[in-house]
Amino acid sequence: MISNQQLITTLQSILGMLELDSEDSLKQNTLSVCDYLGSPQFSIAVFAPFNHGKSTLLNAVLGENILPMDLIPTTSTVVSINYSATVKTVVTFTDGRIIQEEGTGLLQSYGKLDEIGHIKEESVATIKIYLPHPFLKTGVELLDLPGTNDQQIRDNLVIQQLLTADLVIQVLDARKLMTLEEKNHLQDWLWGRGVKTVVFVLNFLNFLEEEEQEEVQERLAIFASLFRGYLPPGVSNVYPVNALPALRGQLKGDSSRVESSGLTAFLEALTTIVSQGKGKQEERVTKIISRLQEVGFRKVRELEVLRDKELELKQLLKRGFRQSVANFRNWLSLPHLFCNYGEGLTLALQQNKFQEWYQEELGREVLKYKQECEEWVGKSYSGELGVENLGLKMQGSNYRDIATEYLTRFHTTTLSALSEYEVTALSDSEPDSTYQLQLLKGLLEKVLLQGASN
Ligand SMILES: Nc1nc2c(ncn2[C@@H]2O[C@H](COP(=O)(O)OP(=O)(O)OP(=O)(O)O)[C@@H](O)[C@H]2O)c(=O)[nH]1
Ligand SMILES: [Mg+2]
Fold first, then answer.
1. Which of 58, 101, 150, 378 suits 410 as a labelling partner, its CA being 20 to 30 A distant?
2. Residues lining ligand 1, judged by CB closer than 6 Å?
3. Which amino acid residue places its CA nearest to atom 14 of ligand 1?
4. Tens digits of per-residue pLDDT, 428-446?
5. Which ligand has the nearest atom to the CA of 49?
């Protein structure tokens, strides 16, 4: 079985070869799964429509008023909370710029929506807060997500974060339990992507009559049983927590209030789940692998068609090239050279006009044949062809003999250069698509084995 790191590299290489658009959901989901595989931390993501008390719940967990909470859509982007001995906030922008500051002041400027629910700073990519909290010190990362029913772009951000999380906490409003939208999100965003371990937190339960409270919990328990995933037996995945009373109890250090809010039981469950360690939600990995294979093998078939076309074209070009070389050779035959150029060359030598003759007659014709060969294979003819005088003594009385000797040497030299050129021109590499094809097939087979072993 290959290591997580090898799997990440393979998945990233496949993505590279598929050349998907950066907005493509398969690409984004794969990158999120790679983040999940590569992260050493146990990430807990809190997920719900806006105003359900996600930020309030996380503040209660942390025992501090850190995350912005309000009655209007508040959390603008994903805020991750990690461990560090000192409190600081790091904001990363989409252009790679980073600002960091001690404390959590930056969160108010960059992590909040404005009064009418718009993002104040469009270019914020991530906000990370570091706190010296003991729960975080155990290797836990908390993710406060923006509300889901606000803007498409933020929904997409939330989906990606859910895929990177080891545990998803869905906050529900007891007064309007499981809206159609919430059910759809659970179905499409989580179940459909292989994320099947969800802990449900029932907020605002204290707004209901006691009888209603029981009924709501029973109804939720049936639904929640589908999302137990890797939870150990004995650990429930439904927790009634009144987030605001829990936070107030925490801030005042009032443990009985914290307990009656439901937070104590919820925190105990979280600690148990975290202590089990990472790596139990492999289904999202197998799901993404099978999606990649589907798209990958489609690409393989496209590449095969392309390669066949390229090979066919190459054959055609080779045939044309061979014909041109054959024509060149015929032209170079001694009888042909003597017959066509013997007289002219003798005359030119007599008149001491070899250079002019060469350029107008022999040289011009050689150039024509040479170019014809080059055009077929796209490779320049490096063989020595411009052999104007071949070291001949041009003086002397028997010009006919000199011409015969010149044409004979020209014949031999040019023929041997042509043969060399023919070998190099034809010994070319496979088409590019063959290489791509082999690489992609190899990568897909590698993850296929991984998928099978999961
Ligand atoms: N009464 C009462 N109010 C609560 C409770 N939990 C949260 N609230 C209030 O509900 C409002 C919304 O809470 P937030 O924590 O900001 O909700 P959120 O889900 O993070 O909202 P977005 O960030 O906008 O998605 C705030 O005014 C909270 O004070 C609760 O248990 N009881
Ligand atoms: Mg919030």
1. 378
2. 48, 50-56, 69-71, 73-75, 146-147, 203-204, 242-244
3. 53
4. 667 778 888 899 999 998 8
5. 1
